[in-house]
Amino acid sequence: MFCVEIVQENDDNAQYVSVGSMCILVNMIVEHIHNQGSFAIAYYNDLDADDKNDILCTVATYAISLVTGLMGVKVERDGNNMHLESDAPPVLLAQLIAIRHGKFGSEVLKPYCDHISTFWFLEDLDQMEADHRDLLNL
């Protein structure tokens, strides 16, 4: 997917991880690892240099994949090229368990069925309904 490498800059001795056309400074990734708590710090510090490089490349690849994906997010538009003002469907667990199963199909899935079906298969929609039914039976 990406060509990932750790590169040393000559002018300021900063290292960065290059992933495709983007790069992340190594010290920023290490700082992120240190922000994860004492377990992550101890685990990272105990690794040898090759394993540390693998971790840095993995974190950089994930971060850049995330940024690339977020850059592709587009607002849904109506016929006049204005953003849609419809409310988002309920997605929180507390919201979903408060909805009867029949209402889930008619008020949650049906209004978004055309949009959902462009990305999901019919079997996935059926599984969503089954999962909601199972959730209500818990």
What can you see in these coordinates?
This protein is mainly α and 138 residues long. The chain folds into 2 domains: 4-71, no CATH class; 93-137, no CATH class. It has helices at residues 26-34, 38-46, 49-71, 93-97, 101-117, 122-137, and strands at 4-8, 15-19, 22-25. Strands 1-2-3 form a 3-stranded antiparallel beta sheet. Strand 2 (15-19) and strand 3 form a beta hairpin. Helix 5 (101-117) runs antiparallel to helix 6 (122-137). The longest helix is centred in the middle third of the chain and has 23 residues, at 49-71.
Query: Which value, in Å, is the CA radius of gyration?
Result: 22 Å
Gap between N and C termini, in Å? 41 Å
The helix content, as a percent range, equals 55-70%
The percentage of residues in β strands lies in 5-15%
The pLDDT mean sits at: 79
**Strand order, largest beta sheet:** 1-2-3
Q: Spans with pLDDT under 50 lasting ≥5 residues?
A: none
Query: How does the major sheet shape up?
Result: 3 strands, antiparallel
> What class would the helix/strand composition place it in?
mainly alpha
Helix-strand pattern, N to C? EEEHHHHHH
DSSP E strands, number:
3
DSSP summary: helix tally? 6
What is the approximate shape? elongated
